[in-house]
Amino acid sequence: MQIGLIGAGSWGTALATVLANNGHEVTIWTRRQQQAEEITSQHTNRRYLPGIELPSTITATTNLQQAIEGKAMILFVIPSHSIRETARQATPFLSERMLLVHAVKGIELETHKRMSEIIKEEIPSALHNRLVVLSGPSHAEEVSRQSPTTVVVAADQIETAEEAQDIFMSPYFRVYTNPDVVGLELGGALKNIIALGAGLSDGLGFGDNAKAALMTRGLAEISRLGVRLGADPLTFSGLAGVGDLIVTCTSQHSRNWRAGNLLGKGNSLQQVLDEMGMVVEGVKTTQAAYELATSLGVEMPITRELYNVLFADKCPRNAVEDLMGRLKKHEMEDLAQN
Ligand SMILES: NC(=O)C1=CN([C@@H]2O[C@H](COP(=O)(O)OP(=O)(O)OC[C@H]3O[C@@H](n4cnc5c(N)ncnc54)[C@H](O)[C@@H]3O)[C@@H](O)[C@H]2O)C=CC1
Ligand SMILES: O=C(CO)COP(=O)(O)O
């Protein structure tokens, strides 16, 4: 199968290796000519996946039309803030036969919309039921080394998700289907907030107890907002919920954890973002989720405190004190509200 892949960052390139190893021909679109030449001729993408040799069936182009036209599947893997603009630019080259997949984890800051909502606003309506979301615990660095990984795909019609399952599934890349598009997208986006918090906690020198608390109570508030927005609560017990939360809060590969860690060690947000050089989705998602939760009256105390640390200059230790000092609660009553 011929596949067009929009985005030559770490996750796009890692997914390209999965698809190429499954026998597909992948054309990656990138904005940078030098990177396109490196991928096509040297079979590397050193800035984003150092030390990985790419299959020779992966090529790259800066021509969006060339990356899309005539392909059976188009895969979007770019930062969430650029999905609307990129989907709009891609639209003239899409055709009704194509399968569209996105693997982007974020919420649009200006509208608080999920990625599939945005893509649907930009593409022709005939393609709406061809759109699939791919999410789950999957760091690019490990996938590109063929380390066993499990992900989930969801679509409005389960048959569409099953098409994507067949294309991606491999001996080291196991793909589940799930009908819950809303839950998959929110699980993937909101866990990045908690991973920033986990990194911050580690950076402040707190221990595993604090991180376990953040992850568990983080999952409670992810579910609370998710269910309020129409997700199935069970999805958050799955790979795209607790699975992705675990890997992002504990892995050395997580950019969100690393960014939080640098913040906890006293760096400013701008210093951290300059140092990362890759997208840290959790920063914008913290703002979007905070605004969304506030407008809907959904309680998200960890998200609120992170918002205050990131955007209102609150000292992280005061944020922790305020989290710990909240009113007493019954755990079961609290969880039953979700
Ligand atoms: N890296 C990972 O392990 C995983 C990442 N993701 C998600 O995949 C998405 C992409 O992340 P990564 O590939 O890791 O990011 P990255 O920072 O490694 O690469 C982003 C790529 O998008 C390009 N880009 C940036 N702004 C753009 C714009 N305005 N228009 C077009 N292209 C633009 C960059 O040049 C770069 O090629 C994010 O939503 C992330 O949360 C999901 C699962 C795993
Ligand atoms: O979503 C991811 C792993 O599943 C990647 O997380 P980071 O963006 O924090 O690296």
TrEMBL record:
Sn-glycerol 3-phosphate binds at residues 105, 136, 138, 191, 244, 254-256. One of its GO terms (molecular function) is glycerol-3-phosphate dehydrogenase (NADP+) activity. Pfam families: NAD_Gly3P_dh_C, NAD_Gly3P_dh_N. The active site is at residue 191. Catalyzes the reduction of the glycolytic intermediate dihydroxyacetone phosphate (DHAP) to sn-glycerol 3-phosphate (G3P), the key precursor for phospholipid synthesis. NCBIfam families: PRK00094.1-2 (NF000940), PRK00094.1-3 (NF000941), PRK00094.1-4 (NF000942). This is Glycerol-3-phosphate dehydrogenase [NAD(P)+]. It comes from Ammoniphilus oxalaticus. The gene is gpsA.
